[in-house]
Write a structure and sequence with these properties.
174 residues, two-stranded antiparallel sheet, 6 strands, alpha+beta
Length: 174
Amino acid sequence: RLEPSKVGGGVVHSVRTSGPGFKVKYLKDYQGFEAGIQNYAGAFALARAIKTLSELGHEAIRDHMAELVAYAYERLAGFKEIRILGESRDLAQGALISFIPAGHAFAAADLNIFLNTYYRDRFIALRVGRHCADLVSLASGLAGTVRLSFFIYTSKSDIDEFVRALRKYLSFLG
C-alpha cells in the first residue's frame, strides 16, 4: 500500500488524462521505488574494470602484489618502532601488511592523523583500527593495527613515500 515518494523515469506504468488532471498508474512492488535512471556509468565502469583485469591476467596481478608486499616488508622491517604482523613469505601470498607500534611510542590512530594533516598535499591511504575484526583484536590484545593494502595501481614509489612519511612521523616523537 506504499505509494512512491519520488516520481521519475522507471516508476510510472502509465499516465492518462482524467477530467481536469492526470491519472498516474505506478509500477507494482519494488519497481515503483526506482525513480530516475539506472547507474549506467557504474555498469560501464564495472565492465571496463573487468576487461582491464582480464587483460592483465590473474598471474600478473598476483605477481605484482607479491612483489609489492615483499618490497614493503623489506622497507618496514628496519624500523625498530614497529612490529610487522606475520612473516614475509606468508604475507607475500596476500595483498596487505599490518603492523603495530612496538612499545608505547605511538598509537596507530595518531599516525593516521599525522598523515592527514602533515601530508595534506599528498594522499597516503592506509587503514587503522580493528578492521572489522573486533574479536580477533580483543583476543590478541591488540588495540588496533596499521594496514597498508596493495593492488595493481600501487607502485614501489608509493611504498617509498609511506616509508618517508613514517620516518618523519617517528622523528617528531623523539
